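EI: anyone free to look at a 175-residue chain?
SC: sure, send it
EI:
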Amino acid sequence: MSVPSVVLHGPESTGKSTLAARLAEHFGTVWLPEYGRAYCEAHGTDLVPADLVAIMEGHVAQRRGLEREARGLLIQDTDPVMTAAWSMMLFDHRIEALDAFQEVGQLYLLMDIDLPWIEDEVRMFSRIEDQRHFFSLCRAELVRRNLPFVLIGGDGDARYARALDAIARAELADA
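SC: here you go
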């Protein structure tokens, strides 16, 4: 990956897409929407492991294409590291292709589960117990891979301010 990348990481309904768009606007760059969401909207949510590999491949292809448009920083609304967490949540096992993924971001913003749940057609885990479990899997995936991350919590403006601060501290862009 030639362009520095910030990846929003975390369970469903934690404000990743909203924050990604806002960060991209702030930095005058582009952001990559969550490929898994588009995949599930097109194919449904009755997923098997091969679907997660397809999501990884689709994400990587879109990211590589979008890098040419990034201006010093690429914002990603999830990446295959998040898809690996989904594998643990959905199937309780690791998928070799996802474990082999190495084109990771330079900073991960781990979104806390402190926002109200918003239901939609592709979200699966509305129960708070499931959200807590999913959050722990998301965090564990970052720790397992030894990736740099910052926990981002609070309401929309607080999340945005914390994200800007984390990116500035990581010295990835002119904040």
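EI: The chain is about 50% helix and 10% strand.
SC: 👍
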